[in-house]
Amino acid sequence: MAVISHSATHHKVETISRSRGRSAVQIGAYISRSRSYDERTGIWHDHRAKGGIEASERVGWQGDGQSLWNAAEAAEVRRNSITARHTILALPVELSEVRQNALLRGYSLWLRDRYGVAVEWARHAPETEGDPRNYHGHLVETTRRVDGKGRFGEKAREMDDRTRNGGRSRGSREMESRRAEWARRCNAELDKIGVIARIDHRSLERRAEALEGPKVAAKPRHMGRALTALKRRYEGSASHASQNGATPPRMPAFLVASRKRKENLMRSRSSWSRLLGEVDDWLESGSPSLDAGELEELLGTIIRAGTRTVRNAAKLNPVLSRPTHRMTGSDAIRLLATRPIQKKRTRHRGR
């Protein structure tokens, strides 16, 4: 049976660099929703009013967050130094607060043991006006190794290594290891509470190679800064009109097109995911027996058909291909999948 992919797959890592005007003290205060003084710049960073903090902790460091990140800044002398690394993680909403905290703590300890760095983690609740499922974690780690006495040593350059040895760079492999470790820990927790869905750290291309997803999954286009501003202006006007009983303004054409495209895309992705399970049942009940080669061809054709369906749904006005213009959903893709095998068998019988 096909494995159901969990939606909490977000795993983003960014660097905190002075060349971009960023500070380890600032990002530490942000994730912990605290007030910290940056000794290098003389600036106070106060994020207490933002709220949303559920829990926070530091591993590999005995003091508070302000002392940790000021020490990280003091360990660097170059004006373009990278002083910290920031990771944002989506947390499975099915898990309790205790288990979410345990996930973040365990992963932070794993990073400490793997790279010898100090890590501060924090768990944030969803924003009031956002998706109520958006529980997420923040991790900030030092870029230098920290010993048991709080002294900063050499740089932990595993993630920055771009040298290749007949394949992917070491930094790319390290990123893969981090994602795999986080997915393994999350899936272990989901398994304990009986959740079937699993977090898959692999890219969409690699899933397609394993015949577990479309080769290309189209994404909704980003509107950009200007159109986003127009969208917020329209939403504000619509909200104001609704509160005062006035006629709401007409939705801009670009916003109508964007929402229609997104709805088509989400509907197509959902149908394609259900198709894999349906094909499993179809192969087991009433379908002619298939040898290994025919089964591989069947699955490959389904992948290609699903790719076309998802890519086509991302267009403003989707147009179904000729073989499916009178069909929708899994029946149409099933026909596309079986037709090459039926033709192959017909040619074989005629010989």
UniProtKB/TrEMBL annotation:
Organism: Sulfitobacter pontiacus
Keyword vocabulary terms for this entry: Conjugation, Plasmid
Region described as Disordered: spans on this chain: 150-180
Keyword Transcription regulation part of the UniProt annotation: no
Family: Belongs to the MobA/MobL family.
Transmembrane segments: none
Domain MobA/MobL protein: 22-232
Bias kind Basic and acidic residues: ranges: 150-164, 171-180
Pfam family of the protein (one): MobA_MobL
Protein's recorded name: MobA/MobL protein domain-containing protein
